[in-house]
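Input record (one chain):
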Amino acid sequence: MGDTTVKKIDSRTSPVGKQGQKYLAGGKSVSMRLWQEQPGADKPATTRNYETVGYVLSGRAELESEGQTVRLEPGDSWIVPKGATHKYRILEPFTAVEATAPPAEVHARDE
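The corresponding structure, as predicted from the sequence alone:
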């Protein structure tokens, strides 16, 4: 039998990353993080060595990836495949939860 440990994470004490992301629950294969962002300058395009899926809680943003642009609004979810070049443009105060596989915070994948 494998690991059967259940974890509970209190987001009030979760660590915050260099980009403002709050790390939530994380396991060996997947982890979650919370983004709360304000409109501002466009973020630079980036490529990550993990897959990301997200869900918009509030606000609006645009996600540009590999020549495609999608508008993200409350209730929308999205996926950015591993290795895809992408960037976000925050249009209004934005809150979203993302899951990354493998975990973004391990081995400096988030940097």
